[in-house]
């Protein structure tokens, strides 16, 4: 068996004028924070005050002794080093690294190999502890060295991330701070082993009717040329035993497996998982054991041509899947702080918002195993970018070999996860090279990354994992024949609308697959308030502006409001109206695109999460609080939903049935005047086939209400002239919260309860709610402590659009 000595825990961190205890796994910033040596980088503009951290060199140290039994080999294994490191043991250089996205294994047998039990107590040197030092050079220094070698490269951002294989967004992004980390960011351990170990296990599991196929490749590292065997078990049942002759270090087995269930994405059946075990045996002696859950499913992406262009339809087990996706950025700017519990919380929140696909965006990381295991369990599809974003990337050494090594390692590492359905070459690099004419800029004409996306990476995926489709980029039209961001061909990023237009323009096109689109809003009030010291806090006061990283972000927010609302006269009104506009924009986009299924085969919202308090496109803010958008996602992603859409010069009710059963019933359509008074009601029977959309033409009106089977859609011809909604609000205490009952005598649009204004940890269960005259709703507010019902009367805790507009006078 392999003996493992975990090296997590307290190390020592040194830098100029710094000598501190350090936590491993971790990073310099979190150690300095814990020691009180830097201020909270998320507060105010402290980001600037801590910028020096990323520009320094650092050393992590501890003493090392092998405490385990005697072995042929003792290896020092780092699951991740961030990033430019020289590792020394007892003054001997074990190796140098320059890639955050790889793991490293160093043979330290000659130094640590004497087993504790075998040590001669008289020999003071045997088994003595040796100092282990990890010298980390600033990523800026390395990037400058590489840039000097390969020349400049065009980039959307001012920082040098294309020159070092490190999480790009730690250099700042249009939603993130520049906090350039260094550290031992993933677990580190000593492994003692003898004869042989399982170096890599690469299972490719696919599904066919009634059964599966397991294509298993195992690489073995040896110290002795002995004939070995590999036993393969599924849920404890032996599938096969494969001989590994003495002169071989690799084996491959293709194993048909009968009587298993398919792994299915959410909404298509259970995500069946099986425990796959590989045991490496020397005679009857177990040398090593590898164990993971895997699932059997077959994935294709239909990228065939049709009259409209080129499709992009994800198919799992032969069934087309409407992608209801979100883009995922690293959930913490210090990713070593992530835990399984945090991943689980966030991914369950995605599920609760009706999401079935998560795209791991290319400016972040290949996530931790826990992330993919949770997606496997939750039936979430994962679209994984290779880590390239928004820049030209050098194809020269020393970057090229790092990219190859990193891609091979991660394609292998993630191969067991059925949730992972596609590898994508990059984020926006092919598009931007074309659209920004980067070829004309220094360093953009050649060696700019195209070779990775069109040759290197697809070849690696084809070799190591032909079961998963590869795409060259997002967006990408399939070839240079069409513009990379063509709405008619494969994937499309819809950014013109947010950047320059009114959100109604989402309706102007029906792209084949929208893999990014988004609309900004500030975070929850408390999140913003806690992040700044501005007094007064204004949309453009310095702290608030520091927490808005997008180019002209506040200008775009303001221009986005103009067609719909008067200019906000207070920060509170700005906050309410911009959050409302975000919801309306995203609803407009998703409902329109869903109504075009399967022509438009999915959407991936930019973005689910944030990694610090910031005005951004996210649905869940950097403190983990829900923006109203979060709740709207649940509605627009519902398997069965209605939406009223303008189509070909008139209105239709689009009946959206993303469900395996037909949806039948009586669709009622009410026409009401602008005060909400009922004028006319009509009904017709509808039958909507499984996984399809039916469009029912209707007549126009000031206010339209379509209802089917408890689902409804509302349509308002205008926002203005809202009368008094005449709300009656009754809050009652319940253990750990309040139930807030709201009754509307008149038409009440966009009632919003901001739970964080009652208590920073309080949450509600609804976003914006619109009530017709006479209707009621109950909002459930939950908090870690009991709440005072009178708090709902506090300013801005519970409000609605008419009240906001009425009070929207300069204060
Ligand atoms: C796209 C993304 C991100 C960016 C977002 C918002 O460019 O891929 O790089 O944060 O839009 O601008």
Automatic annotation (TrEMBL):
<dbReference type="Pfam" id="PF22666">
    <property type="entry name" value="Glyco_hydro_2_N2"/>
</dbReference>
<dbReference type="InterPro" id="IPR036156">
    <property type="entry name" value="Beta-gal/glucu_dom_sf"/>
</dbReference>
<protein>
    <recommendedName>
        <fullName>beta-mannosidase</fullName>
        <ecNumber>3.2.1.25</ecNumber>
    </recommendedName>
</protein>
<dbReference type="GO" id="GO:0004567">
    <property type="term" value="F:beta-mannosidase activity"/>
</dbReference>
<keyword id="KW-0378">Hydrolase</keyword>
<dbReference type="InterPro" id="IPR013783">
    <property type="entry name" value="Ig-like_fold"/>
</dbReference>
<comment type="similarity">
    <text>Belongs to the glycosyl hydrolase 2 family.</text>
</comment>
<dbReference type="InterPro" id="IPR008979">
    <property type="entry name" value="Galactose-bd-like_sf"/>
</dbReference>
<dbReference type="InterPro" id="IPR006102">
    <property type="entry name" value="Ig-like_GH2"/>
</dbReference>
<dbReference type="InterPro" id="IPR017853">
    <property type="entry name" value="GH"/>
</dbReference>
<dbReference type="InterPro" id="IPR054593">
    <property type="entry name" value="Beta-mannosidase-like_N2"/>
</dbReference>
<feature type="domain" description="Beta-mannosidase-like galactose-binding">
    <location>
        <begin position="11"/>
        <end position="186"/>
    </location>
</feature>
<keyword id="KW-0326">Glycosidase</keyword>
<dbReference type="InterPro" id="IPR050887">
    <property type="entry name" value="Beta-mannosidase_GH2"/>
</dbReference>
<dbReference type="GO" id="GO:0005975">
    <property type="term" value="P:carbohydrate metabolic process"/>
</dbReference>
<feature type="domain" description="Glycoside hydrolase family 2 immunoglobulin-like beta-sandwich">
    <location>
        <begin position="212"/>
        <end position="297"/>
    </location>
</feature>
<dbReference type="Pfam" id="PF00703">
    <property type="entry name" value="Glyco_hydro_2"/>
</dbReference>
<dbReference type="GO" id="GO:0006516">
    <property type="term" value="P:glycoprotein catabolic process"/>
</dbReference>
């Amino acid at each position: 068996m392999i003996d493992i000595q975990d090296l997590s825990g307290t190390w020592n961190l040194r830098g100029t004028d710094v000598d501190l205890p350090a936590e491993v796994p971790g990073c310099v910033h979190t150690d300095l924070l814990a020691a009180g040596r830097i201020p909270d980088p998320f507060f105010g503009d402290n980001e600037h005050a801590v910028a020096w951290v990323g520009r320094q060199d650092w050393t992590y140290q501890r003493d090392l002794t092998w405490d385990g039994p005697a072995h042929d080999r003792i290896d020092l294994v780092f699951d991740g080093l961030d990033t430019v490191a020289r590792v020394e043991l007892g003054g001997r250089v074990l190796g140098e690294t320059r890639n955050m996205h790889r793991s490293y294994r160093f043979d330290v047998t000659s130094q640590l190999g004497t087993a504790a039990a075998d040590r001669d107590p008289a020999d003071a040197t045997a088994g003595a502890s040796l100092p282990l030092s990890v010298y980390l050079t600033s990523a800026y220094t390395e990037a400058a060295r590489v840039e000097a070698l390969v020349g400049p490269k065009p980039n959307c951002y001012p920082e040098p991330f294309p020159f070092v294989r490190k999480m790009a967004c730690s250099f700042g992004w249009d939603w993130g701070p520049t906090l350039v980390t260094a550290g031992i960011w993933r677990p580190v351990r000593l492994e003692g082993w003898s004869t042989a170990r399982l170096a890599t296990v690469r299972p490719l599991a696919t599904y066919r009717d009634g059964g599966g196929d397991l294509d298993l490749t195992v690489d073995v590292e040896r110290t002795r040329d002995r004939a070995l065997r590999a036993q393969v078990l599924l849920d404890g049942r032996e599938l096969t035993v494969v001989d590994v002759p003495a002169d071989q270090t690799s084996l491959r087995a293709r194993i048909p497996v009968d009587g298993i269930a398919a792994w299915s994405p959410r909404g298509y059946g259970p995500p069946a998982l099986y425990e796959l075990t590989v045991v490496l045996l020397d005679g009857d002696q177990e040398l090593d054991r590898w164990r993971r859950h895997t699932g059997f499913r077959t994935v294709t992406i239909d990228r065939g041509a049709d009259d409209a262009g080129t499709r992009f339809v994800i198919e799992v087990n032969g069934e087309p899947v409407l992608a209801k996706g979100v883009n995922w950025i690293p959930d913490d700017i210090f990713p070593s702080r992530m835990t399984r519990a945090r991943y689980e919380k966030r991914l369950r929140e995605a599920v609760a918002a009706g999401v079935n696909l998560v795209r791991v965006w290319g400016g972040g990381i290949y996530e931790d195993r826990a992330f993919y295991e949770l997606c496997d369990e939750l039936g979430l599809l994962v679209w994984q970018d290779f880590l390239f974003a928004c820049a030209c990337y050098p194809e020269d050494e020393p970057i090229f070999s790092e990219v190859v090594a990193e891609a091979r390692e991660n394609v292998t590492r993630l191969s067991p996860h059925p949730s992972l359905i596609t590898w994508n070459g990059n984020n926006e690099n092919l598009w931007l090279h074309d659209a920004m004419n980067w070829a004309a800029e220094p360093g953009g004409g050649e060696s700019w990354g195209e070779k990775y996306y069109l040759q290197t990476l697809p070849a690696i995926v084809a070799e190591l994992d032909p079961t998963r489709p590869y795409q060259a980029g997002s967006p990408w039209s399939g070839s240079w024949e069409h513009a990379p961001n063509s709405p008619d061909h494969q994937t499309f990023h819809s950014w013109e609308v947010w950047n320059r237009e009114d959100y109604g323009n989402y309706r102007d096109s029906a792209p084949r697959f929208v893999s990014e689109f988004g609309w900004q809003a500030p975070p929850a009030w408390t999140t913003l308030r806690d992040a700044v010291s501005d007094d007064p806090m204004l949309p453009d006061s310095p702290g608030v502006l520091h927490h808005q990283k997008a180019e002209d972000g506040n200008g775009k927010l303001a221009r986005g409001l103009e067609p719909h609302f008067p200019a906000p006269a207070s920060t509170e009104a700005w906050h309410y109206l911009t959050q409302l506009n975000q919801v309306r924009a995203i609803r407009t986009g998703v409902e329109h695109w869903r109504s075009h299924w399967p022509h438009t085969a999915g959407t991936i919202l930019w973005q689910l999460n944030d990694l610090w308090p910031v005005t951004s496109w996210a649905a869940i803010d950097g403190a983990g609080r829900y923006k109203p958008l979060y709740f709207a996602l649940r509605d627009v992603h519902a398997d069965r939903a209605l939406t009223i859409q303008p189509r070909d010069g008139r209105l239709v009710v689009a009946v959206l049935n993303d469900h395996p059963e037909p949806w039948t019933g009586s669709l009622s359509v009410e026409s009401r005047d602008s005060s909400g008074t009922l004028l006319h009601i009509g009904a017709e029977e509808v039958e909507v086939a499984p996984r399809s959309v039916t469009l029912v033409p209707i007549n126009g009106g000031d206010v339209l209400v379509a209802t089917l089977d408890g689902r409804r859609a509302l349509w308002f011809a205008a926002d203005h002239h809202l009368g008094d909604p005449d709300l009656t609000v009754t809050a009652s205490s319940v253990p750990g919260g309040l139930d807030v009952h709201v009754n509307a005598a008149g038409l009440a649009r966009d009632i919003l309860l901001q739970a964080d204004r009652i208590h920073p940890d309080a949450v509600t269960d609804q976003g914006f709610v619109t009530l017709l005259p006479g209707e009621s709703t109950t909002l459930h507010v939950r908090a870690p402590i009991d709440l005072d019902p009178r708090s709902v009367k506090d300013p801005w805790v519970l409000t609605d659009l008419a009240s906001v507009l009425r009070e929207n006078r300069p204060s």
